[in-house]
From TrEMBL:
This protein's UniProt keywords: Membrane, Transmembrane, Transmembrane helix
Keyword Membrane attributed: yes
Matching InterPro entries: A/G_cyclase (IPR001054), Adenylyl/Guanylyl_Cyclase_3/4 (IPR050697), Nucleotide_cyclase (IPR029787), Tll0287-like_dom (IPR021796)
Annotated Guanylate cyclase domain residues: 289-424
Chain ranges passing through the membrane: 12-34, 209-231
Organism name: Fulvimarina manganoxydans
Protein name listed in UniProt: Adenylate/guanylate cyclase
């Protein structure tokens, strides 16, 4: 059953049909129940009226017709008519005795005929609070059409009482004012002598079955609601289990992806997982800025260290350099022994010039950080801390996925990458060497000086390298000066000038001061 309900809930059209059927069925059920209620009320009224008429017919036949026939057709209206042959009840007596008959034989209807001034030979009648209040109202208003209604009952039965006034007419005034048993003899036409009360009661359960269609509808709706709730509860439990399973799988995938991200460049990792980069053998030709670095005399340093210490220090070196590379947006291609290969321009690029500037700034930050780490490593007993050489070149390379269908490597190839590796080999420990192509893009941001032209193996032209001047690292003794602004660049390293160079530097600075001091031409 629950599966059937679940299938209906999963089909929007079927669910709409069920809901519309339920909405249309409600007014139909209400109409059917109203018809049943009307039928039951009419049947109850007809039965009650039939019973009252039967009581009245029986009373009339016994106390009027039989007595008149027995007296030979002679009839005398009397208050105490039972003791007189041919005596028949006066209207008041008839009303009182008829009320007693109805009360004795009919439970649903009650009739009372009461007054504050009953004849002396009648049994006293104690008025109820409702009757006292109604009689007082009638006597105060004198309205013969007045009505007082009282609704009462309990949890199982309801009762309605309707009181109407008894108004004296001329015949009644003549009788009461002259009758010896009348306690009041100054009646006038229109006076209220008492009241008559009709009480109708009915148990609530009598009409309960009149709402059989609505109750059936409610039971069916409740059953459907319970089944829907059961289905939703089952779905909720199922979704909760799926959610927990999904959470577990997500946590597993997160751990796996974190692990994978350590084996491939971070930019490539994000590109693959975002779907922007295909995982197939494909390459593009792009202008990149390529970075090569390695540790000078790494083998000699490694021979002086225990393998465990070397592993710790080398991992610290790679961690620090990788952190800087990621901060500047480099794509780390690979670690080759103690060497680092990285590039700017793929899979994301900020433009060729900006990529080159970011690469050189990264290299400077790396050398600065290595200078800080040198003192730290010396304190830990490393006699010859790592000193890195860096080479940077900008040019067209093939970049993308190389390998087989089952195993690929995201890397770069081309002579421009080879040139970056060659530039790194001629750099001094702690130095940075640029190709002219890179220097031309960063010359406004970095101080560099040309070196002697070099012809590298595999490069079919003479290359003019540019050594980046690292302020604070160009000399280990004398003070240095570096100033750069639009229209002026000053770089002084006294220890490299020599005696003759110092004199020439003084003359040059004096000439520069004279030029700057001249008034500006209009």
């Amino acid at each position: 059953m629950l599966k059937s309900v679940e299938r209906i809930l999963d089909k929007p059209l079927a669910l709409v049909i069920v809901v519309m059927t339920a909405i249309l069925a409600l007014p139909v059920c209400v109409w059917l129940d109203l018809r049943n209620l009307s039928d039951q009320n009419l049947t109850s009224q007809a039965n009650t009226l039939n019973a009252v008429i039967s009581i009245f017919r029986t009373y009339y036949a016994r106390n009027i017709v039989d007595r008149v026939v027995a007296a030979g057709g002679k009839a005398t209206p009397l208050n105490a008519y039972h003791a007189v042959s041919g005596g028949i009840p006066v209207p008041a007596t008839l009303s009182i005795e008829l009320g007693q008959e109805i009360r004795a034989r009919q439970k649903e209807v009650e009739y009372s005929f009461v007054s504050h001034y009953p004849f002396l030979n009648r049994e006293p009648y104690r008025l109820s609070p409702f009757e006292e209040e109604a009689l007082a109202t009638f006597e105060a208003s004198g309205d013969p059409a007045a009505r007082v209604i009282d609704v009462s009952g309990n949890f199982l039965t309801r009762q309605i009482a309707v009181a109407t006034p008894l108004v004296m007419e001329q015949a009644c005034v003549n009788c009461h004012n002259t009758h010896p048993d009348s306690p009041k003899t100054d009646w006038k036409v229109g006076d209220v002598r008492g009241l008559q009360v009709f009480r109708v009661r009915q148990p609530l359960t009598l009409n309960l079955w009149a709402f059989k269609w609505l109750m059936t509808y409610m039971v069916a709706a409740g059953a459907c609601g319970l089944m829907v709730a059961a289905v939703q509860f089952r779905k909720a439990k199922r979704f909760e289990a799926l959610s927990q399973e999904l959470e577990t799988k997500n946590a597993f995938l997160s751990r796996v992806s974190d692990g994978i991200s350590k084996y491939i460049p971070l930019q490539v990792f994000h590109s693959i997982f975002s779907g922007t980069k295909p995982t197939e053998i494909s390459t593009d030709r792009k202008k990149l800025t390529i970075f090569f670095s390695d540790i000078k005399d790494f083998t000699a340093t490694a021979d002086r260290l225990q393998p465990e210490d070397l592993t710790v220090i080398l991992n610290e070196y790679f961690t620090e350099m990788s952190t800087i590379a990621e901060a500047y947006g480099a794509t780390i291609d690979k670690f080759i022994g103690d060497a680092i290969v990285a590039f700017f321009g793929d899979p994301t690029s900020r433009g060729v010039a900006e990529d080159a500037k970011a690469c050189v700034a990264m290299a400077i930050a790396m050398q600065k950080r290595l200078g800080e780490l040198e003192a730290y490593w010396r304190k830990r007993g490393v006699e010859h801390p790592f000193k890195a050489r860096i080479g940077i070149n900008t040019g067209i390379c093939n970049v993308g996925n190389f390998g087989s269908k089952s195993r690929m490597d995201y890397t770069i190839i081309g002579k421009e990458a080879n040139l970056a590796a060659r530039l790194e080999q001629i750099a001094e420990p702690g130095g940075i060497v640029l190709s002219y192509e890179t220097y031309a893009l960063v010359r406004e941001d970095v101080l560099a000086e040309p070196m002697e032209p070099v012809r590298f193996k595999g490069i079919g032209r003479d290359v003019v390298p540019y050594r980046v001047i690292l302020i604070g690292q160009a000399t280990e003794t004398g003070p240095s000066l570096s100033r750069r602004m639009p229209g002026m660049t000053v770089e002084i390293d006294p220890d490299r000038l020599g005696e003759s160079g110092r004199a020439e530097a003084v003359r040059t600075l004096q000439d520069a001061l004279a030029i700057v001091s001249r008034p500006k031409a209009d």
